């Protein structure tokens, strides 16, 4: 007799993607007035990302703060806690995938619109300056260089 088959294990990424999708669904339902996914625009996604800031744990110094640009501030300050750029970027990636897995079309995916990409870039740059952290873009290797090395 074969052992009882266990349910397929779901990756951490898939579990997080499902949680994120459910969270976004609750946000739509609790929005005043309630929003319908098919009517969601980039503006609604930006509003959602800004709403999430209240649950953030990353200190982002204001321009007027004496610790602005200091990666290791010597004392506490009253600057706000926000969602870290990397968290928002990963969240949008998961929601973008979840949207299409739940029947949405790539062309109408509100998580992939230009306004969302620009907002994420602005958050990244603002947080980098405020926290004194440089976000280096990973450089892609030049295809011609790779070909030279492989010959």
Automatic annotation (TrEMBL):
Signal peptide (residue range): none
Main location: nucleus
An individual GO BP term: mRNA transcription
Keyword RNA-binding part of the UniProt annotation: no
Pfam families listed in its UniProt record: ALOG_dom
Record-annotated ALOG domain positions: 12-139
Keywords noted in UniProt: Developmental protein, DNA-binding, Nucleus, Transcription, Transcription regulation
GO cellular component: a single term: nucleus
PROSITE patterns referenced in this protein's UniProt entry, alphabetically: ALOG (PS51697)
This protein's name: Protein G1-like6
